[in-house]
Amino acid sequence: MDILLQQIINGLVLGSMYALIALGYTMVYGIINLINFAHGEVLMVGALTSWTIIGWMQTAMPGTPGWIVLILALIIACVVAATLNFTIEKVAYRPLRNSPKLAPLITAIGMSILLQTLAMIIWKPTNKAYPNLLSTTPIHVGGAVISPTQVMILSVTAFCLVVLMWLVNYTKLGRAMRATAENPRVAALMGIRPDMVISATFIIGAVLAAVAGVMYASNYGIAQHAMGFIPGLKAFTAAVFGGIGNLAGAVVGGILLGLIEAIGSGYIGALTGDVLGSHYSDIFAFIVLIIMLTLRPSGLLGERVADRA
Description:
Helices cover 72% and strands 3% of the residues. With 309 residues, the chain is mainly α. Helix 5 packs across helix 6.
């Protein structure tokens, strides 16, 4: 029972990060029907930017409380990621908006490779030890243990989700986003500027990716140039699982995928007679994707971002 509870906690933490990343995929797809395969690399840039800022602050301002350092690094990482995603949308995707669907898809894959290469040049192709800036005293919940970093991840994710739902459902920008997702031409006739709305969507997605990147690096204690690929791919799986284009679906898909992966990795040895170890846990995400696409191609909550729950 203790192992199950521990894996559930780990799954919720992992699923929270997947949910943040998946929201970026699903928002962009809901607005312009584009899968931004460079989204994982935005996460990577956010994580490495925060690592750089943390290192600089620890050298230039020693003695600064860890939580202040982390917050400042997170803010700067969000600004850098938002600027990057805004530029990507304007330079790489906007000129191809009316092109055949294959063109922006190939561009997105190319942008992913380009960002990884640039990160290798800027930060070098080595693993960076990401410092733990919070307390290391564990919190005991029943027979399980949860770290302060995991508490931070769950809390930050909950805060981001509340802010995002408020933004989408109760603000002028949110109404413009839903209108643009429903019909960009009609939205333009009503005075909405689709280009501005699409850029804002990319910026919001980038902020969520940067937050997820900082959380991911904090949780695993490492950052490097290729760190965004697998989490990005799994988050895309979560978005499809929940119903790509649906915000609630992205959250549900992310949480469920995290739980499936964590619980599966905890018991995979027993299930296979120790033939497979926990390092094979990645297979669960893609088994889930295959099953979901076979049984329900639209996902659990398959509807567009324009639809309100």
